[in-house]
Amino acid sequence: MITVAGLGVAGSYLLRRLHMEGGFSAEGYDPKPPGYYIPCGYAVNFNLFRDYCRMAGLEPDNYLLSSGRRVVMENSSGLSMEFRNVGLSTIEKNSFERDLVEGLRVHRERAKAGGDEVTVDATGISRSIIGHARDDFRMQTLEYLADSGLSDAFLFHYFPPRASGYLWSFPLAGTSMWARAPQTLFC
Ligand SMILES: Cc1cc2nc3c(=O)[nH]c(=O)nc-3n(C[C@H](O)[C@H](O)[C@H](O)COP(=O)(O)OP(=O)(O)OC[C@H]3O[C@@H](n4cnc5c(N)ncnc54)[C@H](O)[C@@H]3O)c2cc1C
C-alpha cells in the first residue's frame, strides 16, 4: 500500500498518476475539507500545465482563468520592463485539485507515519511526516483577493534590496489577486 499524505497539487497529481498507471494500491490523506482555500499557486506556465493535464487525463482549458497579454517587472527606482506574455496564466487551482482525486481513495483526515509499505510526504511546508529540515528557513507571505487589480498585466514589483521583497498582482477571472512576499521581516 502506498499512502500519499497531503492532497495539495503535488499529492493529488501523484495519487492520480499512480491510479492511472495501474498495479498500485494507493490512497490519499488530507484533513482539508473539499473546497477549502489554501493560497496559492494560481499562476502557471500554461504550456507546461497543458502537458501535465494531458498526462492526468484532464482538460486544461477547464481550469483557465486568465492569460493577461503583458508581463511587467518594475522596481522601486522606477525601472520597468514589459514583455509580451507567452504562457503565464492563472488557473482555478481548487477545481484542478478536486478533479485530480475525483473517484480515488481519499480520507479526509491526517495521515499517520508508518505501517504502510511506502508513505509519501506531500504535506508541503508542513512536512508532517518527515519533519522539518535542520536550518529550514521559512518566510511569511500576505495574500489578498481584490475586486480590481493593480494592473491588467501580470505585475511584479521589487522593493529595494534592504527592504521587504516583492509584490505581485495577477489577473483572475472576475477579481485580481496580489501578494506581498517579504524576503526580510522588520519589526
Ligand atoms: C502566497 C503564495 C502564493 C503563491 N503563488 C504561487 C503561484 O502563483 N504559482 C505557483 O506555482 N506557486 C505558487 N505558490 C507556491 C505553491 O502554492 C506551492 O508550491 C504549492 O502549493 C505546493 O504544493 P504542495 O502540494 O507541495 O503543497 P500544498 O499545496 O501546501 O499541500 C499540502 C497539503 O498537505 C495537507 N496536510 C498537511 N499536513 C497533513 C497531514 N499530517 N496529513 C495529511 N495531509 C496534510 C494540507 O492540508 C495541504 O492540503 C505560492 C505560495 C504562496 C504561499
Radius of gyration of CA atoms, rounded to a whole number: 19 Å
Average pLDDT metric: 86
According to CATH, what is the topology of one domain? Answer: FAD/NAD(P)-binding domain
User: Order of strands in the sheet with the most strands?
Assistant: 6-5-11-12-13-10
Please give the largest β-sheet. 6 strands, mixed
Total helix count? 3
Order of helices and strands: EHEEHEEEEHEEEEEE
Looking at the overall shape, the CATH architecture of one domain is: 3-Layer(bba) Sandwich
Low-confidence parts lasting 5 or more residues at pLDDT below 50? 182-187
Bound ions, cofactors and other small molecules, one mention each: flavin-adenine dinucleotide
What is the H level of CATH, i.e. the homologous superfamily of one domain?
FAD/NAD(P)-binding domain
Strand content: 25-35%
Based on Cα principal axes, name the global outline.
globular
What fraction, in percent, of the residue positions are helical? 10-25%
CATH class wording of one domain: Alpha Beta
Distance between the termini: 48 Å
Give your account of this protein's structure.
There is one protein chain. The chain has about 190 residues and is α/β, with parallel strands linked by helices. It is about 15% helix and about 30% strand. The chain has a domain at about 1-40 and about 90-130: FAD/NAD(P)-binding domain, CATH 3.50.50.60. The protein has three helices and 13 strands. The strands form three sheets. The protein has a six-stranded mixed sheet with strand order 6-5-11-12-13-10, with no helix packed on it. Helix 1 (about 10-20) packs parallel to helix 3 (about 95-100). The relative contact order is 0.21. It binds flavin-adenine dinucleotide. Flavin-adenine dinucleotide binds next to helix 1 and strand 3. Flavin-adenine dinucleotide binds near residues 6, 8, 29 and 123.
